[in-house]
Amino acid sequence: MSGGDVRPGRPEPALPEGDGWTAPSPGAPSRIADDTALAAVLATGAGRVLLGLRAEHAGAPPQDLARIGDAGAQHHLAAALRQHRPADAVLSEEGADGAGRQDASRVWIIDPLDGTREFSEAERSDWAVHVALWEEGRLTAAAVALPARDSVLTTAPVSGPRPPSGPRAGGTGPGRGPRLAVSRSRPPALIGPLARRLDARLVPMGSAGVKITAVIEGTADAYVHAGGQYEWDSAAPVAVAVARGLHASRIDGSPLRYNQAHPWLPDLVVCRPGDRDRILAALADVTPSATETPS
């Protein structure tokens, strides 16, 4: 949901303590020195706020519940960042784009609630909280919380084997190629032609963060999007995906760049390294529509 959907002047929801942070006192030093650990604490805390608001306002109209969730999670993250990283700049879907952000050496790129549609549907769990840190040209720390699934993925090193790097094994015929995570409500126009070229099977799901974590966790093989997004839609999950050894780029293979003057980042592909060439080759034959809406 865009920042314009949060109505100015409305009281922000009260934030309970005990979900990863406490109300800051003047001059209080940071209690969490590691940026990845802080990203995890912030995303987890915002997720708990969202779960509480979802329960408290059960039965509210979906548009109102989405607005309440956006505002509550933004309030939590803004307050926690002021406590722990007061000198850092912030780029948030729900916050004002502060002056001097591009001159800052450290910028937190956050999406307080990725997947407002799914959040507003009580039975759905495919929504997320994104927290990423950009430092001097690259993403260096991130966490993606899936609060309704009690899961948090971060850029911290993980034990055990990484996801397979080679192409997904499969036979021939429709649906035997890679599994593509796609929007359940507004899949980009290029997905149909791309799926036919790859003999892919489409796996509909909610937010962009959930789609990328599906690739990270192996329940999908790739996420391809060309319908329009902003930096906060992908920064945190892309950082986690790259930390786990996956490929992430624009659909033409060029790098994803963050903390740009205009945070519009309309397309991306996240996949196994072994699937990169065939997916990019197939994408080269597909022309995305310039009129598609963000998802």
Distance between the termini: 10 Å
C-alpha-based Rg, rounded: 19 Å
Give the integer mean of the pLDDT values.
85
Order of helices and strands: HHEEHEEEEHEHEHEEH
Tally the beta strands.
10
Number of helices: 7
Shape: globular
Low-confidence region ranges: 1-29, 169-173, 289-295
- The chain-level structural class is alpha/beta
Biggest sheet, spatial arrangement of strands = 1-2-3-4-5
What would you call the quaternary organization? single chain
Strand content: 15-25%
Tell me roughly what share of residues is in helical segments. 25-40%
Query: What can be said about the biggest beta sheet?
Result: 5 strands, mixed
Provide structural commentary.
The chain is built from seven helices and ten strands. It is α/β, with parallel strands linked by helices. The longest helix has 23 residues, at 62-84. It is globular, with a radius of gyration of 19 Å. Mean pLDDT is 85; it is low at 1-29, 169-173 and 289-295.
